[in-house]
Amino acid sequence: MAYFKMKYGNEKMDVFIPDEKLLGIIEGNKGCSNKKEEQVILNSLDNPIGTKKLEEIVSPGETVCIVISDITRAWQKMSFYLPYIVERLGMAGVKDEDITFLCATGSHRRQTKEEHDILLGRLAKRFKVIDHDCRDKDNLIYLGKTSFGTPVYINKIAMNCSHIVLTGAIVFHDLAGWSGGKKSIIPGISGYETIMANHSLSLSPNFGEGINPPVRSGNIINNPVHQDMLEAAEFVKPSFLFNVVVDGDGNISGAVAGDYIKAHEAGCKLVDEVDRVYIKQKADLVIASAGGYPKDIDLYQASKALINAKEAVKEGGTIIVLSECVEGVGNNEVQEIIQNFRNNKDREMELRRSYTIAKYSGYLVTEIAENYEVILVSDIDKKLIDRSNITVVRSFDEAINIVYEKKGQDLKIYVMPFAANTLPTLCE
């Protein structure tokens, strides 16, 4: 009997699988470096890609906006790596009062003071962090349109600084291919209209075709969302980028610094080395954990685990997702597009009529649930998503028993302990 302790919120859940049913464990490599986290960070800052060192780019008297991620990305250990960036700025003669931390909330909610303390760690007493508000038009500046027709509105605080430094982490992303890099700009510090125009490129040109095929995790080729983001980032022209790669144990195993395009491309290759896992066949059942809090803080965030898990299961197969969802669905619009419509054609029509990221997330979840049997082990209120075609249960035992009763005992099973990060790819 194979035994796993899989992350669920801030706890762990016991999962037992008979050895003969276990097809494999899909998880990333332990890391792309044997160095300690501090060494990884210092090495990247000392060897930037495509630019000079950060301390050689900025000068005394100049202002710097450091763009950081919000609390849903607390797993990237900002409080650990941000002091090294501040130190480099200090070496260049930049004063504390000339440094602004801007939280790239995108269209997410504002952060609490306690959450700011988590994000900045010991820096919280030295610096103020400002939450970007995508709907605050008075604090946005218009920079122009991309070739895709996206109007580019960017946070005025960032644009008024001498330099913009992007920070964050790189993982697979269902819209942009990979997170990090230019995603700190769109959706990070962009206006609501900008974010929605960009993300609406995720839909195929014709109604009824649903999601545009090139818009998927681990792909940027012919991906219009990615291409549009890059064009918008060119208006902004960030001075420097620092992105980390975090392994399944929560350690910073890789980092890249330098030019926001070239360094990010190198970081994406690191993610591929760590988290793209090639499989020879698909399974009847995939058991996936989103990776615990905050990756399973709500259904909106946990959907990333579901998106990756489906790549390892046969059409019509079953996916069990372990996700506590302590904040429920996470967004009213996710719930509304799930609950206010009876089929995905109507949901797609609503999405095309009035696109939002949250609606897209809800639509994506229901589309997956239409093609696979999805069982969610969660504390979420079942009534919030009872039209999603997702079965909600409270324990793994309840979930696996449902599968055995419906599909029988003769199943081949994959286990994905960190499904929000790990992308299974079928060997060609």
Automatic annotation (TrEMBL):
Every LarA-like N-terminal domain range: 8-206
Top-level taxon of origin: Bacteria
InterPro entries the record matches: LarA-like, LarA-like_C, LarA-like_N, LarA_C, Ni_dep_LarA
Entries under Gene3D superfamilies matching the protein: 3.40.50.11440, 3.90.226.30
Listed GO MF terms: lactate racemase activity
Residue span(s) of domain Lactate racemase C-terminal: 280-417
Pfam families: Lar_N (PF09861), LarA_C (PF21113)
Stretch forming the signal peptide: none
Matching NCBIfam families: Ni_dep_LarA
Listed name of the protein: Nickel-dependent lactate racemase
Species of provenance: Fonticella tunisiensis
